[in-house]
Amino acid sequence: MHVDVFTLFPGIFDGPLDESILKRAQEMGRLSVALHNVRDYTTDKHHITDDYPYGGGGGMIMKPEPIFAAVEDVLGAALPHVPIILPSPQGRLFNQALARELAAHERLALICGRYEGVDERVRQFLVTDEISIGDYVLTGGELPALVLIDAITRLLPGVLGNAGATLDDSHANGLLEYPHYTRPAEFRGHAVPEVLLSGHHAQVASWRRQQAVRRTWERRPELLEQADLTPEDRALLETLTPQAGEKRAKSG
Ligand code: ADE
Fold first, then answer.
1. What's this model's pTM, rounded to 2 decimal places?
2. Which of 21, 27, 67, 130 could form a disulfide with 91 if both were Cys (CB 3.0 to 4.6 A apart)?
3. Strand partners, 6
4. What is the C-alpha to C-alpha distance for residues 173 and 200, in angstroms, rounded to an integer?
5. Does 132 sit in the ligand 1 pocket, CB within 6 Å?
6. Residue 140 C-alpha to ligand 1 middle, in angstroms?
7. Pairing of strands 107-111, 84-93
8. What's the rounded Cα separation, in Å, for the pair 237 and 241?
9. Within 10 A of 172 (CB to CB), how many other CB atoms are there?
10. Which of 138, 143, 148 should be mutated for ligand 1, with most atoms under 8 A from CB?
């Protein structure tokens, strides 16, 4: 996976890309990220990248020319084949399914907006996808771009080592993930559930599945509508009574 990032603040990417899994993915050759400073594509003396909005109002708008110039120069003949993504609160909501969809591409381009936003012609005539990482507003597209890169990279083959590592992730199968425990078996009087110490794989798998279903029902019940549920899952959900639902609402 190669990612071209177009930004006015390439320094924001240094820390996250230089640590842990993202660093290792680059060392393994699974991920490469090229940071392109949009300011380098200005042609005026003062290297201006933003301007006042037509029609007035507050805030500055990123000018279209340096963004188009940067993306066209970097992508060249590949331009029609590469998704060009603008992180934006107006975009399609990012989720695990979209992370998987993006992870299937060999190359992506991310344009990071700043100030009040980018000139609408960038959206209309350059960008192929707008993606929001949630219903809140950040100061720019750099952190959302890193969120996308992180979520995509851990799905690339070989990056997490264990081929099954992402199968049980929260959201991977439409459910939240089951609880995890490690040693010690008892911590401050709180014991690890007995079944996990039993060495009985089928029972462990069944316990984990029940926990995932229960947890999803408690915390994100709307996810259950889309989840792939077995007859056992449905039987478990039947036992989760309205009284339990009331308790859940009170405990917030
Ligand atoms: N830019 C600013 N806020 C954003 C958000 N919530 N998602 C994606 N890009 C953004």
1. 0.93
2. 130
3. 36, 111
4. 23
5. yes
6. 7
7. parallel
8. 8
9. 16
10. 138
**What residue's CA is closest to ligand 1, atom 5?**
89
| 111: nearest Cα among 81, 131, 93 | 131
- For 161-172, what is the mean pLDDT? 79
H helix intervals, the chain = 14-17, 20-27, 64-75, 96-103, 120-125, 142-153, 194-197, 201-219, 231-239, 242-251
Rounded to whole angstroms, how far apart are CA atoms 108 and 1? 8
- pLDDT > 60? residue 49: yes
The response to whether residue 64 sits with its C-beta less than 6 Å from ligand 1 reads no
Ligand 1 lined by 88 (C-beta under 6 Å): yes
Query: In this structure, which residue's CA is closest to atom 2 in ligand 1?
Result: 138
pLDDT of residue 213: 97
d(CA 80, CA 78): 6
80, two tokens? 């029609």
| Mean pLDDT rounded to a whole number for the chain | 94
